[in-house]
Amino acid sequence: MTSALALSVTDLAVARGGIPVLEGLSFDIAPGQALILRGPNGIGKTTLLRTVAGLQPALKGKIGLDREAMAYAAHADGLKSTLTVEENLTFWSSVFGTGSIEPALEGFNLAHLRGRAGGSLSAGQKRRLGLARLLVTGRPVWVLDEPTVSLDVASVALFAQAVRGHLAGGGMALIATHIDLGLDEAEILDVGPFKAKPPENDHFDEVFL
Ligand SMILES: Nc1ncnc2c1ncn2[C@@H]1O[C@H](COP(=O)(O)OP(=O)(O)OP(=O)(O)O)[C@@H](O)[C@H]1O
Prior knowledge:
GO terms for molecular function: ATP binding; ATP hydrolysis activity; transmembrane transporter activity. The protein is α/β, with parallel strands linked by helices.
């Protein structure tokens, strides 16, 4: 872990394609805590996660930890299809300067697939590899967009266990999900009320002229 500081987000506004989608968001995630984002399709959860992870600029507001604290996982997992499962994890481990990949292989039931090319994995196995990557980043904040897509029930349980292990080690997690992860200890934030209002018309009177 590179940081034991809390993640404080203050008065954040985020935009997609130049259009504000969420605004006025403030939350804190303390070490050992997970926050689950809820809200209907298209409200802006992915946009919020990408902004918190430092992949796009905020319109407004403050994110209290820098992007080096974040490990982001979404649909495109950055998996190299010609490398084996083991080589993918070893590559990420060397990029992030962390140690053994064995806990990641074990944690996501990938040990028996270690010699298989990434490109030959099933959708759920690819997703498990993408999530196993989180374990080798050594980063304190996991920022996860629909992490359980394609996962079977047993793999969802493995995922929940990995998150719990991360939290127990002082890590933090910010997760957008539509399903129940069984992480009853997590806080929930419904982003619905933070939907950005349409910009005010500066020339309101002119509309009626
Ligand atoms: N490239 C784009 N340009 C403009 N608007 C976009 C673009 N991509 C997405 N949007 C819009 O931005 C809004 C926020 O999208 P976002 O993906 O953040 O929502 P979400 O809450 O993650 O949705 P879901 O639950 O369906 O994953 C949506 O209304 C979406 O249609």
